[in-house]
Design brief:
This protein is mainly alpha-helical and 534 residues long. Among the domains are: 93 residues, no CATH class; 128 residues, no CATH class; 68 residues, Orthogonal Bundle (Arc Repressor Mutant, subunit A). Helices cover 51% and strands 6% of the residues. The protein contains 22 helices and 8 strands. The strands form 3 sheets. It has a 4-stranded mixed beta sheet. Helix 1 packs parallel to helix 15, helix 5 packs antiparallel against helix 6 and helix 17 crosses helix 18. The longest helix is centred in the C-terminal third of the chain and has 38 residues. The radius of gyration is 37 Å and the shape is extended. The protein starts with 19 loop residues before the first helix and ends with a helix.
């Protein structure tokens, strides 16, 4: 029987471990200019050893030296006798305690005031817009609460994210009875329950009557039907009855023409509602003849109905849920000087760092405590590491952009059609770093070029080899495919095989399957779906 006993074993293994300095270098390299500026500002607040070089503002070292000189000169000078009575400021005394009226603050006193950014208006979201309308209505408290719950379950496009039964079940599971996390929901929907199915349906109908028309729908068919119903109701309110005849002899023909246009508009809405309710798949195929035949209407009526449907918004919530514009500032400039393209870093408004001389004196001073010295040493190590990483980031970005400029001079001179294919691996081999380093160096960074402010990743693209050995970037190839499709005849759209033949005639060897893949990646419909039949 073997006995259990402790033993010591030696095992040799190799592991790649990132030190804190390397981790910081990797993170600093991936930052763009704005993000790097925020990081430096945060480090300056946390690390007192770091100082920003600013000629207009005196450094802490200069202020300290100036104070030492003043103190030394004050000690050397003979101090004249002072009258204690003259040191009393009676003016401020009376102003502070005897004057009951209004008085302004001294000029040197700084009061904390709220930033003007706090007064900027926030963009109105779809939920805010619907909640504002719901608050202006006089409805039952339970119905209003259910409507707020429905509004909270709308996605960015304005559609409901769950069915009526799921909404009712979720609404009943809301922790209103002090039972958070209770996922059990009864199967029955009693009429007296707060979250009954009938209440949710009434809440959905209430939300669907709000602006914009089409919100609260479960699918595209219902969204378009709601918009058509809202426009038909508004149209009937405006043109419900016949036009008044003020002067039949002089304006009778104009009145008849206006009534004809109104009737055509009303008929187009009627046919549009019929198509959306029963023939939506045929509408997606863009076959007017089959659509008119299935709806049992004239071809002209079907065409007018389709034109009306095109005016509807399939995503009504997007007008309130627009993405806010993102501020972009170029990290590098591609400038032509003396007939040669050069790269320069955009260091405007970037803080220039230096190490504090005052803290360096504390390290060599014998009067400094040991704990204080250890703290200052650690802060110096952190500051030096940060400054080295910032310098390394600048060097890596410059070397990477210099390779880009060398390989893409024709693009900078002529435009996107002259863009050459270039891989990250090739640039990494040329500057002698790992491809992941180049990938981080160009991530979320922009270059100011004669062709506009472009993402640095824009310059990296795979190639499609031609029969003559010329390479074409995939970006240019996709642009060619899109341009050929945009210039086609809608009645006779080009097929993927024809597109491949056209590109092959231009020296680009490509197959039909590759063209179909690029077309699908650009969300371009097939030839059958693009064909417009009259």
């Amino acid at each position: 029987m073997a006995l259990l006993e402790p033993k010591l074993n030696i095992k040799v293994a190799q592991r790649q471990i990132l030190t804190p300095g390397l981790m910081q270098m990797v993170s600093v390299l991936a930052l763009n200019k704005l993000e790097l500026k925020e990081m430096i500002d945060a480090e300056m607040v946390e690390n007192p050893v770091l100082e920003e070089i600013n000629e207009s503002v005196p450094m802490l070292d200069e202020v300290a030296e100036r104070e030492e000189r003043l103190e030394r000169s004050a000690e050397e000078a003979a101090a004249p006798p002072k009258d204690v009575f003259n040191e009393i400021d009676f003016g401020s005394y009376f102003q502070e305690y005897l004057d009951p009226g209004y008085r302004t603050q001294p000029e040197y006193e700084e009061n904390e005031k709220p930033s003007f950014e706090n007064f900027l208006s926030q963009p109105t979201t779809l939920s805010d817009h619907l909640a504002w309308q719901l608050g202006s209505l006089i409805v039952d408290a339970k119905l209003e609460e259910a409507a707020e719950f429905v509004i909270g379950n709308l996605n960015e496009d304005g559609y409901l994210t769950a069915s009526e039964e799921e909404l009712a079940a979720s609404f009943r599971a809301v922790p209103g009875d002090a039972r958070p996390g209770n996922g059990h929901v009864p199967d029955d929907f009693a009429p007296d329950e707060m979250a009954s199915l009938d209440l949710i349906r009434r809440a959905i109908e209430l939300v669907q009557r709000l602006d914009p028309a089409g919100v609260g729908a479960l699918d595209l068919r219902q969204c378009l039907a709601l918009q058509i119903a809202a426009q038909r109701q508004e149209f009937d309110q405006m043109y419900g009855g016949p036009l008044e005849a003020t002067d039949a002899d002089a304006h009778g023909s104009f009145r008849d023409e206006a009534e004809a246009h109104i009737e055509e508009r009303r008929r187009a809405m009627e046919v549009a509602a019929l198509i959306v309710d029963h023939h939506l798949p045929l509408l997606q195929k863009r076959d007017l003849k089959d659509l008119a035949r299935a709806a049992q209407v004239k071809l002209e009526e079907a065409q007018a109905a389709v034109e009306f449907i095109r005016t509807l918004d399939p995503r009504p919530g997007r007008m309130y849920n627009r993405e806010q514009p993102r501020l972009i500032e170029p990290d590098v400039y591609f400038v032509k000087r003396g007939g040669e393209w050069v790269v320069s870093m955009n260091e405007e408004d970037m803080p220039s760092l230096r190490l504090s001389r005052r803290y360096r004196n504390m390290l060599v001073s014998e009067n400094t405590d040991k704990e204080v010295k250890e703290y200052v040493k650690e802060r110096f190590r952190s500051a030096l590491q940060l400054m080295r990483n910032i310098a390394q980031r600048k060097s890596t970005i410059l070397r990477t952009c210099e390779v880009i400029v060398r390989r893409q001079q024709e693009f900078l001179d002529k435009g996107v059609e002259a863009l050459r294919p270039m891989m990250i691996k090739e640039v990494a081999e040329e500057i002698g770093v790992h491809p992941s380093t180049v990938s981080r160096a160009v991530a979320n960074k922009y270059a100011h070029t004669p062709q506009g402010v472009l993402d640095l990743r824009f310059f990296f693209s795979e190639s499609a080899n031609g029969p003559e050995g010329a390479d074409t970037p995939l970006l240019v190839l996709r642009r060619k495919v899109r341009k050929l499709i945009e210039d086609e005849d809608p009645r006779k759209p080009v097929t993927d095989e024809q597109l491949a033949a056209i590109l092959q005639s231009q020296g680009i060897q490509i197959t039909r399957r590759t063209v179909a893949k690029y077309r699908e990646d650009m969300n371009i419909p097939s030839t059958h779906q693009r064909r417009r039949r009259e």
